[in-house]
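In these records, each integer encodes one residue's backbone shape. Here is one protein:

___
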Amino acid sequence: MRLNLWRAALVLSCASLTVQGGAQSGKPANVDDARLRTADRSPGEWMAPGRTYDEQRFSPLHRINDSNVADLGLAWFADLSADRGVEASPLMIGGVLYNIEPWNVTVAYDAKTGKELWRYDPKVDRDTGKLACCDIVTRGLAAWKGRIILATLDGRLIALDSKTGKPTWSVDTLEPVWPYTITGAPRVFDGKVLIGNAGAEGAARGYVTAYEVATGKQLWRFYTVPGDPSKPQHNKVLEMAAKTWNGEWWKVGGGGTVWDSIVYDPDLDLVYIGTGNGGPWAQRYRSPGGGDNLFLSSIVALRADTGAYVWHYQTTPGDEWDYTATQSMILADLTIGGKLRKVLMQAPKNGFFYVLDRATGKLISAKPFVPMNWASGIDPATGRPNVNPEARYGETPVLLTPGPGGGHNWNPMAFSPRTGLAYFPVTEMYMAFSVNPNFRQSPGNMSQLGISTTGYDLTRKAAAAYAAANNKAWLTAWDPVKQEERWRVPYPTRGSGGVLATAGNLVFQGTVGGTFAAYRADTGEKLWEMPVQQLPIAAPIAYSIDGEQYIAVNAGWGGGLAHSSTAKTLGFPISVPRLLVFKLGGKAQLPKLADAAPELVRPDDASVGASVVSQGEQLYAQHCATCHGEAARGGIKDLRRMSPATHREFLDIVLHGARREKGMASFDDLLSETDAKAVHAYLARRANEDWSEIVKGN
């Protein structure tokens, strides 16, 4: 059960403030509606998560271009405080770069020199870490009229004075009972700030809320899943949505959280939200008998002033595969069939690239961008997927693609109006889905999927072998008008980052090989690449100061990309996470990495009985697999590769929070000492089973 420690809105605790350094010189974050509507008049600034209201992540800057990018070098860098996944794109306004780190620590730098100006630590409740399905990440900040706005993992929305880093207001955005967190970036428009939340893996009921930027006052809230039908719904559209559900869904939560993409069209005065997966995943537990389960896995258009429903398009009716529609939504005006169309584009997890009329929500086109077997296509008349009946899995495992990581996950997509192409990382991934017949829900617990990763051992081993042989990853350039791939850059495994496109005919992306790379936007030719001792999984930004262009990116491995049941070790040592800033002729050098390899000793499991290992396997699947991988393969930390010191500390880590600061909270409310010992025994057995693979670094 989540403790609501910050229920009193606008009350600021002295303990939540850690400001270091002096106030910045120069202009504050002077962002408003007029400036965001005309962002191309300030091409050297990056004033919003996607730079502009349309979230194209396209920079008009071209001083760094396809003819000189080979001269790019490091201008400056800053070490980040938490060694976890770093998914945020910074902002750069008025010569100041604003960045946010894991645990929502927010820092202002001189964007030219890298000098730290101030630092704010909201003192996030570390126990919230175990409620986050996919690491203690955050995806960015918002700015408005001298304020920098952040959302914390434990549910607060906080406005900071952009000059000093001191908070001006703080509100708690979360409701009790469900295991909510916030990982998405807030979005601002016309004096309002919008924020959603995460938690559908814990079956949390989704919603998005608008607040007044000046005061933090709540203006409206839109729920994505209907409530108890015996009571009045919050609006008429939820009465309609309730007809698409069965059973007592309101008691199990439902899911549909708005955990990432939110986009605003100022001309239509519409806000578009992308909603998440069902909770639990298995539909038989949240909506027995089926149904579309609105508004799961949907794009929903709302009136910006009131939050009133306008239209929706559901990408995955009756989702039970974690096929969220929370991925990047991009607005553009495209000529299709000889007509200029106002469109919304999305490449969500389910593997189809969608082009919608953003005024009406009507489907214009949808085509697969990755191999799939869950559906054979989209019916152009209804806009519904033609679902393979076998994809509605039961207790016997069914091998499906895309897997729950999706054909495209959170890593931001970019669109270049110069080339007319969308750029995003793609994953062809397979997973065996099956229902857990023994599932029992426990509200407040993050792992509420209703699926099984144990049993049917031969089937699962065959599925894992097929996945290992066929999983693929690449960067794609997609033509949304012709609905076809223009070019691709293959990668050895999933893990490469979000994308930036520029007017210099360039596409920038961090790679799973531990490099930062630039490609020709029109052909995909690699023009430049630099080893950076880390994985820049976040999307880069571009900015300019005094006529000099910079490219900035956060580099820190982790997050959902690392939560793969078939993830391999990276194959190279990594540094602490860093903010990296590049310019032409940059001469800065990263510190040399330590040469020492981590100690790897085969654990002894000879004295452990089969019943204890079996118990540990069940407990691991229920409480640990989401972060550490199915069958302990991969994950954010591969527990088959624990050092002797970690083995010795295992009970202290799991039961007493010895690594709480690093995001590993105590599980003593869910596991007894006997349980923890059983999990440890299972992990030792898994290490021994895969030892030849482990020592080879696979």
Summary: The chain is about 10% helix and 30% strand. The chain has a mean pLDDT of 91. The radius of gyration is 24 Å.
